[in-house]
Specification:
Elements (H helix, E strand, L loop, with lengths): L8 E6 L6 H10 L4 E3 H11 L1 H11 L12 H8 L3 H24 L6 E5 L14 E6 L2 H12 L3 H9 L4 H7 L2 E4 L6 H15 L2
Parallel strand pairs: 1-3, 1-4, 2-3, 4-5
Helix pairs in contact: 2-3, 2-5, 3-5
This protein binds adenosine-5'-triphosphate (ATP).
The site of adenosine-5'-triphosphate (ATP) has 15 residues, from α1 and α6.
């Protein structure tokens, strides 16, 4: 296949906390599909993108960063906790920076049928608008709580609190072009393979 960034189809993948987005992306990666992990990339950009760093300091002050340049996470978390306006302002800084970076990354790809952008807040951030197709990963709430409490060593209450801050699952399912059921009953490989075939069929 010979194509370049501007001609390559853009797909996105989302799902609630612990739904299995990253796990599903690993399957796409085994098929040779490049994946942009927006959440981890956002964390990198917050310490490496000079404009973003300046914006965060302007919003929260110099205490936002530690002496070694690392983000002062507890401080920022404290600033946005219970302050929706501050959180909105922070997102307004981070989301465009990530969108720009993701776009650059996409355009640098060559000879792939499509790219995949993984983000927990694909719909909430508005970044789905830049995508041709969106996949939602779904898993039942109890299973997600079990998976995340085991993975992150946090309490079920903490996971529920994080869930409450995200868009309801039904809404993400309604907006999806494809759904992957990661409930331990359906084969992930089979579902990913079917979606992959469809996306390959769509790519020029
Ligand atoms: P987050 O939004 O928190 O980043 P995520 O949607 O990316 O989560 P994963 O990290 O892929 O979810 O999965 C959550 C946890 O559940 C991980 O520890 C993962 O290994 C496990 N897990 C996911 N899917 C399955 C599965 N089908 N069978 C067993 N374990 C799974």
């Amino acid at each position: 296949m010979s194509n370049h960034g501007q001609d390559i189809l853009k797909a996105g993948i989302t799902g609630g906390i612990g739904s299995g987005k990253t796990t599903v992306c690993r399957v796409f990666e085994t098929l040779g599909i490049p994946v942009y992990y927006a959440d981890s990339r956002a964390r990198q950009l917050m310490v490496s993108d000079p404009r973003l760093v300046a914006g965060v300091k302007e919003l929260f002050g110099e205490a936002s960063y530690l002496e070694d340049g690392a983000l002062n996470r507890p401080f920022i978390a404290g600033q946005v906790f219970n302050d929706e306006e501050k959180l909105r302002q922070l997102n307004q800084l981070v989301h465009p920076a990530v969108a720009e970076d993701a776009n650059r990354w996409h355009h640098a790809q060559e000879n792939v049928p499509y790219t995949l952008k993984e983000a927990a807040l694909l719909f909430e951030s508005g970044s789905y608008r830049q995508l041709d197709k969106v996949i939602t990963v779904f898993a039942p709430e109890e299973l997600r709580i079990q998976r995340v409490t085991e993975r992150d060593r946090v309490s079920a209450e903490e996971v529920r609190a994080r869930m409450a801050r995200q868009m309801p699952e039904e809404e993400k399912l309604k907006r999806a072009d494809y759904i992957v059921y990661n409930d331990g009953k359906h084969s992930l490989v089979r579902q990913v393979w079917d979606i992959h075939q469809e996306l390959v069929g769509m790519s020029g």
